[in-house]
User: Which sequence fits this backbone?
């Protein structure tokens, strides 16, 4: 688009609309004045079904948290909140404009023309008093939130421009960019509001990424309900880590709920009730008390080992997502940390964590769980976890893209800093290294060579560290599963990451609620692959664990015991019940059961069979 003299969006569009005599313009009215209401007002009790993602029942008030998605939700505000919304929008428009000025100053010469074009369109909107006046009028007259009003007006202008095609369509694209910027900032504000809330609330959101979750105060969250996600999505993992009930994959909850609506999240059955009636609330209160009593009954297992009836010992460890959960590990009776997801150190900040910061963190966790081990997985960002501190260009298939070890090997300075921190934190002897997303032997050899190089550097620097720190590999890509014996020859242990392994083996996006029913831990192909990995590890004399969510799948526990898994690592909340199942299992019976089930050819047969088996043996385990 060629640079044109400065114009304001509203006058520019009014002029162009006059020329084309757009039929929906009513005489004497601003260009657009009829805003359709997208949301249905809910009065009666509504029941929504999704994926049960974190156990328990939460009851409370909804806090609709728009996340980094770029669509604003319509919220009704009170008349008293109007000035606040208008001021908030004004402040954000000013900041956005300031950022635009700074970015233009920094832009290189090749992009000068582009910058000029973008700057021009930004000015058309951000300086347009008529346009801003329209947005403010909508906030005032319709009592809606600022981000929604801004979005509605921009969308209407953009729609008209797009219809005209050519360079008008390019302007429409720029308008969307501005909209995204402004809405993101306004959303950030909602997070702050949540953190300042007086009481804990039920967070209702389109999705909940790790980066967003890291900015939230966990004590203000008593339940989670999201449109997107499956059992292994980050929203689910977050809720389990925070020990709050969650239902994900509800598809339409953000469209069916208003701020402060009363909500029940039944994380045991995957049900959310909006504005429940009195009788239903009473029924759920009773269910919640029963559930809490059942959980309490498992307390006595805390200090007992995860040992089968016939004395086969397993290691039952816990997965950690965030540093502040470490006390939950021992409180729930786990034998250490089987998976420390170190991404929390890299997300939600604009600089990389340095070696010293990481050393302090790993040493603290190692000390807290000693004598049990802490298995520290090296950075697994990329995919659906985008750090600000590493520039990951947009990708068509991020889950198959530049993530985890692939980044670590291309950015060895990041990897080496992390390995140095782990090796130094292991002076007590209970920290281990775990490499994520290994797909082949060359890659593993490269990573192992870098670990050796790191040791040489530490030696040279005279730093204290443990040279014999054990190294393990996550088996979460089908190629690694097929090469498990060759991998096992090179390392000290294997840990099966079923969240990704099932996703890649069955070609089912783990975060896509539409196909969540196809994400089957008990698929016969999954069971066979797992059995092969366990056998491959044992044939090379090393132990094999599992740290994906399948390790907490009650229908799978006896089968995994029977397949001779050595370690299971689950969210702290899952530890007591999984321990109970192990302690009521006879290893030799489980082995026979696994042999039988491995011959089944459909997931349905396996699930039906295991459900019946578990119902017979474990009457009070929720399946
Ligand atoms: C897995 O893929 O099973 C796993 C444990 O890793 P994450 O869920 O962090 O991808
Ligand atoms: Mg994984």
Assistant:
């Amino acid at each position: 688009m060629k640079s044109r003299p400065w114009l304001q969006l509203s006058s520019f569009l009014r002029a162009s609309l006059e020329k084309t005599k757009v039929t929906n313009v009513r005489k004497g009215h601003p260009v657009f004045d009829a805003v359709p209401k997208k949301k249905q007002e809910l009065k009666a009790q509504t029941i929504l079904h999704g994926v049960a993602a974190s156990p328990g029942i939460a009851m409370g008030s909804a806090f609709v948290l728009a996340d980094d998605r770029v669509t604003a939700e319509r919220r009704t505000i009170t008349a008293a909140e109007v000035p606040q919304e208008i001021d908030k929008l004004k402040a954000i428009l000013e900041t956005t404009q300031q950022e635009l000025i700074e970015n233009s100053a920094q832009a290189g010469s090749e992009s000068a023309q582009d910058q000029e074009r973008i700057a021009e369109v930004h000015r058309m909107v951000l300086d347009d008093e008529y346009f801003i006046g329209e947005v403010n009028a909508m906030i005032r007259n319709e009592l809606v939130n600022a981000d929604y009003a801004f979005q509605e007006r921009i969308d209407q202008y953009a729609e008209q421009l797009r219809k005209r095609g050519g360079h008008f369509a390019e302007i429409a694209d720029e308008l969307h960019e501005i909209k995204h910027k402004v809405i993101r900032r306004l959303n950030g504000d909602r997070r702050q509001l949540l953190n300042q809330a007086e009481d804990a609330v039920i967070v209702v959101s389109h999705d909940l990424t790790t980066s967003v979750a890291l900015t939230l105060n966990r004590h203000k969250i008593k339940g989670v309900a999201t449109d997107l996600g499956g059992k292994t999505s980050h929203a689910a993992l977050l809720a389990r880590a925070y020990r709050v009930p969650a239902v994900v994959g509800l598809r339409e909850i953000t469209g069916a709920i208003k701020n402060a609506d009363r909500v029940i999240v039944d994380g045991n059955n995957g049900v959310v009730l909006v504005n429940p009636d009195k009788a239903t609330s009473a029924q759920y209160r009773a269910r919640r008390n029963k559930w809490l009593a059942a959980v309490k009954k498992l307390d006595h297992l805390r200090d007992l080992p995860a040992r089968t009836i016939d004395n086969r010992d397993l290691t039952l460890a816990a997965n950690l997502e965030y540093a502040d959960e470490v006390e939950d590990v021992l409180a729930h009776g786990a034998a250490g940390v089987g998976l420390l997801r170190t991404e929390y150190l890299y997300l939600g900040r604009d600089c990389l964590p340095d070696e010293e910061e990481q050393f302090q963190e790993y040493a603290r966790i190692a000390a807290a769980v000693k004598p049990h081990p802490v298995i520290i997985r090296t950075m697994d960002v990329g995919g659906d976890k985008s750090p600000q501190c590493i520039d990951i260009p947009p990708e068509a298939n991020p889950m198959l893209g530049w993530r985890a070890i692939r980044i670590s090997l291309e950015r060895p300075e990041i990897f080496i800093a992390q390995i140095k921190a782990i090796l130094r934190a292991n002076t007590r002897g209970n920290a281990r290294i775990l490499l994520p997303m290994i797909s082949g032997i060359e890659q593993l050899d490269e990573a192992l060579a870098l670990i050796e190089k790191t040791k040489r550097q530490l030696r040279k620097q005279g730093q204290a560290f443990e040279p014999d720190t054990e190294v393990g590999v996550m088996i979460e890509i089908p190629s690694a599963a097929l090469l498990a014996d060759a991998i096992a020859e090179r390392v000290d242990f294997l840990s099966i990451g079923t969240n990704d392994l099932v996703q890649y083996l069955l070609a089912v996006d783990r975060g896509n609620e539409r196909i969540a029913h196809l994400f089957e831990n008990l698929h016969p192909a999954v069971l066979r692959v797992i059995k092969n990995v366990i056998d491959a590890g044992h044939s090379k004399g090393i132990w094999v664990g599992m740290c994906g969510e399948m390790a907490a799948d009650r229908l799978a526990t006896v089968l995994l015991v029977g397949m001779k898994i050595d370690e299971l690592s689950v969210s702290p909340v899952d530890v007591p019940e999984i321990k109970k199942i192990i302690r009521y299992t006879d290893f030799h019976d489980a082995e026979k059961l696994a042999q039988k089930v491995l011959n089944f050819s459909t997931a349905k047969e396996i699930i039906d069979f295991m459900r019946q088996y578990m119902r017979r043996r474990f009457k009070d385990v929720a399946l």
Remarks:
- Residues 166-195 form the longest helix (30 residues).
- Residues 302-617 form a domain with the TIM Barrel fold (CATH 3.20.20.60).
- DSSP finds 22 helices and 16 strands in the chain.
- The longest strand covers residues 57-65.
